[in-house]
Automatic annotation (TrEMBL):
UniProt-listed Enzyme Commission number(s): 2.1.1.37
Family statement: Belongs to the class I-like SAM-binding methyltransferase superfamily. C5-methyltransferase family.
Record organism: Mesonia hippocampi
Name under which the protein is recorded: Cytosine-specific methyltransferase
Keyword check for Transferase: yes
One GO MF term: DNA (cytosine-5-)-methyltransferase activity
Catalytic activity as recorded in UniProt: a 2'-deoxycytidine in DNA + S-adenosyl-L-methionine = a 5-methyl-2'-deoxycytidine in DNA + S-adenosyl-L-homocysteine + H(+)
The organism's taxonomic lineage, starting at the top: Bacteria, Pseudomonadati, Bacteroidota, Flavobacteriia, Flavobacteriales
Active-site feature positions: C168
Entry keyword Transferase: yes
Alphabetized UniProt keyword annotations: Methyltransferase, Restriction system, S-adenosyl-L-methionine, Transferase
Cited Pfam families: DNA_methylase (PF00145)
Length: 421
């Protein structure tokens, strides 16, 4: 009988070697969400697909045997017991609140709220490479496209905080009042729809600073109108916080929007005061010599200098920038300019032989790009956060991420308010 032949180590390895090939395949996500929520009753939302997924794995492992639901359930129970030991950032043993993580990216919100003893009960992210990073660090695969009704159906009830770093889009509100229905077709509409259905105690949204003036201010006005008037949340005036004031040497301004359900009776909120920790670029730079692949070629440096000179002659400030060790980095972004505006001097290179195809020679001035690990540190990710993708993807992921310390400081204020009620 297969029941007598189950080798839990081989099953464990088989299941946790799954790769994120189809971002919209809900079964692997359901499986990992089930394992992470077996203690809190939320597992009921994921159990059906989790069992189906385990059956598929077992049927491949034992093609000549009949795999029943009972056997699949037994395998699930075996896999649960040491799940938290296998990932760098396990959920707290005794969580104090529950939250969901929308547009999760690589888990900046999750890391911050877990640090405050929160339990993530649902997460979604459409990018397959971000899913890989998320799974490596939290042991959970996010669900896919949150705009799809079938994805929304997996969201459980009775969580406390909804977190979302949603993309900024303009709304078509000409001649209208700019309410809930006018946001259809945008990603904010999907967030608002989930808030309307699930009624979380608090909401925590993050976006680029430009949201304040986006579409001449209409976009933010519509968002606030929906949250306040249509959904009935108390939403204080959004605030722009800069990551550099919360312990990381990066000049990164983002707008934060916080809201509380009317049943909480919360009618006041203060955003966190800056910690103003004295951090500089040198604090996050690699301690040891880095690979020659991060050093710019002489041809590339010459191109950057000419490019900058052309813009300066026109009165523009556009161009590359080398950050001094006692300075503050510019905002890291997913495009190439995020790297070119955050170059550093590092004269420790001893091997100038190129390891990639470059035009010209490796420069002898010590000019290099920051490494993905340095970008991770600029965003407040600890060094045991796993980087499991290519450099190109890692730059994109950290550039798109939230600055963890600023998120955590704000979330702490939210939880303090909820705990007072």
């Amino acid at each position: 009988m297969i029941k007598e032949r189950i080798d839990i180590e081989s099953i464990d390895g088989q299941l946790f070697e799954i790769k994120v090939v189809d971002p919209d395949n809900s079964k692997p996500a359901s499986f990992t969400h089930y394992l992470h929520n077996y203690k809190n009753g939320v597992s009921q939302f994921y159990k059906k697909d989790a069992l189906s997924y385990v059956k598929e794995i077992l049927e491949k492992e034992y093609p000549l045997e009949k795999v029943t639901n009972e056997i699949a359930e037994e395998a699930l129970q075996y896999l649960i017991f040491d799940l938290n030991k296998s990932v760098p950032f396990p959920a707290p043993e005794k969580p104090k609140f529950k939250f969901i993580d929308l547009f999760a990216g690589i888990g900046g919100f999750r890391l911050a709220l877990q640090n405050l003893e929160g339990k993530c009960v649902f997460t979604s992210e459409w990018d397959k490479y971000s899913k890989q990073t998320y799974k490596a660090n939290f042991g959970e695969i996010p669900f896919g496209d949150i705009t799809k009704p079938e994805t929304k159906n997996y969201i459980p009830d009775n969580f406390d905080v909804l977190c979302a770093g949603f993309p900024c889009q303009a709304f078509s509100i000409a001649g209208k009042r700019g309410g809930f229905e006018d946001t259809r077709g945008t990603l904010f509409f999907d967030v608002a729809e989930i808030i309307k259905k699930k009624q979380p105690k608090a909401i925590f949204l993050e976006n680029v600073k430009g949201l304040r003036n986006h579409d001449k201010g209409k976009t933010l006005a519509t968002i606030l109108n929906v949250l306040r008037e249509d959904l009935g949340y108390y939403v204080p005036e959004p605030q722009i916080l800069n990551a550099k004031k919360f312990g990381v040497p990066q000049n990164r301004e983002r707008i934060f929007i916080v809201g509380f359900h009317k049943d909480t009776e919360i009618t006041s909120f203060e955003y966190p005061k800056p910690t103003n920790e004295d951090t500089v670029l040198e604090d996050i730079l690699e301690e040891n010599e880095v690979s020659v692949k991060y050093y710019l070629s002489t041809t590339y440096i010459d191109t950057l200098r000419k490019h900058k000179a052309r813009h300066e002659s026109k009165g523009n400030g556009f161009g590359y920038e080398i950050i001094p060790n006692n300075g503050t980095a510019n905002a890291v972004v997913c495009g190439g300019m995020g790297r070119e505006r955050n170059l550093v001097f590092d004269d420790r290179l001893t091997n100038f032989k190129p390891v990639t195809n470059i035009s010209g020679e490796v420069n002898r001035e010590g000019i290099r790009k920051m490494t993905p690990r340095e970008w991770a540190r600029l965003q407040g990710f600890p060094d045991n956060f796993k980087i499991v993708v290519s450099d190109a993807q890692a730059y994109k992921q950290f550039g798109n991420s939230v600055a963890v310390p600023a998120i955590q400081a704000t979330a702490e204020k939210i939880i303090e308010k909820l705990n007072c009620k």
